[in-house]
Amino acid sequence: MSSLAQLIMRRGAQIVGGFLLSAAAFALPMPTGPVVLTISGNVGETNQGKTATFDMAMIEALPQRTFVTTTPWDKQPTKFTGPLLRDVLAAAKAKGKTLTALALNDYKTTIPVDDAQAFDVIVAHRINDQPISVRTKGPLFIIYPFDTKSELKTATYFGRSAWQLKSLTVD
């Protein structure tokens, strides 16, 4: 179990099937390193003003998932590792119907929150077991497991992926 999950559970919460439950006593810790992700909008757990901010250690402390999938951007199947998007949202107690993902290069995409529940979308921080540099689509990359369902191999879902992710707004 990850260190963040252990902390959450010590404070009276439970993680069941990737969902954070009964977390009334949980406080999102302050990042100690550079902030790599800011979640704003309808968030119930904040640690910096009205936002939930995460450094890389906090992202890595969440339960991790790994999958290999083909993408329109790479010639070979690629291995991605990171927490499930739904676990990141749960850590911030985010609730809403849509996410607006914004990248470092100002690319913006809208993601239905339902996607985080219906598919094992991850916030990848590693590609092929290596940290993702800004130059190679990092440090964070919202990626769908395209090879798991044929419906994901469409322009709709390709467009919902966001590399160089810097923030999410929950509406």
Spell out the blueprint of helices and strands.
Blueprint: H1 3-10, E1 14-16, E2 19-21, E3 35-41, E4 52-55, H2 56-61, E5 64-69, E6 78-83, H3 85-91, E7 98-103, E8 108-112, H4 113-118, E9 122-124, E10 126-127, E11 130-131, E12 141-143, H5 155-160, E13 162-163, E14 165-170
Parallel strand pairs: 3-14
Antiparallel strand pairs: 1-2, 3-4, 5-6, 6-10, 7-8, 7-14, 9-12, 10-11, 12-13
Describe the protein in words.
This protein is an alpha+beta fold and 171 residues long. It is built from five helices and 14 strands. A five-stranded mixed beta sheet has the order 4-3-14-7-8. The protein has a four-stranded antiparallel beta sheet with strand order 5-6-10-11. It is globular. The termini are far apart.
Question: Which descriptors apply to this entry?
Answer:
about 20% helix, about 35% strand, four-stranded antiparallel β-sheet, alpha+beta, 5 helices, about 170 residues, single chain, five-stranded mixed β-sheet
What's the gist of this structure?
19% of the residues lie in helices and 34% in strands. With 171 residues, the protein is an alpha+beta fold.
